[in-house]
Design goal:
Layout: E1 6-16, E2 19-28, E3 47-53, E4 57-64, H1 67-72, H2 77-80, E5 101-108, E6 115-122, E7 135-144, E8 147-157, E9 165-169
Length: 170
Amino acid sequence: IWAGSRFGLKGSEDLGGGTKAIFQLEEGFNSATGAQAVTGLAFNRQAYVGVANPTYGTFTAGRQYTSYYTLLSPYSPTTWLTGAYGAHPGDIDSLDTLYRVNNSLVYTSPSMHGLTVSGSYALGGVAGRTNAGSTYSAAIQYLNGPFGIAAGYQRINNAASGGGAWDANS
């Protein structure tokens, strides 16, 4: 239930100096019928390309999770209580496993003494309305052995309602 049925491709190519080109393509599907999890959307889970360097961090572009989700989800009840059973009604904290963002740019720093920071921005894709449908988030995580903590902010501008917004703060 938590991860759902999926198949995908993931890879990297060494570009020299510790820098790698990376990509990931994931498609969700119904294991009983073989149908796409989201009709008409190929690679509906994640589809991104980017570069990674152990000194400078990772930068990716495409359909992917936000920085907020990536760094806070290890502490979410969705992670510990197997997907939907741990989700909050209405996914008010945006930590359910369903929200991936199209047209997003994500930077994640390398871990420095257990501290990782990340930021993401997704273009809205609504012609003539720069902010409509855009998403941005920032998060920070500290890990030290079995101890970890994270905090973040995320804003999702809802293009469907014509300018409304939904915020998830943590």
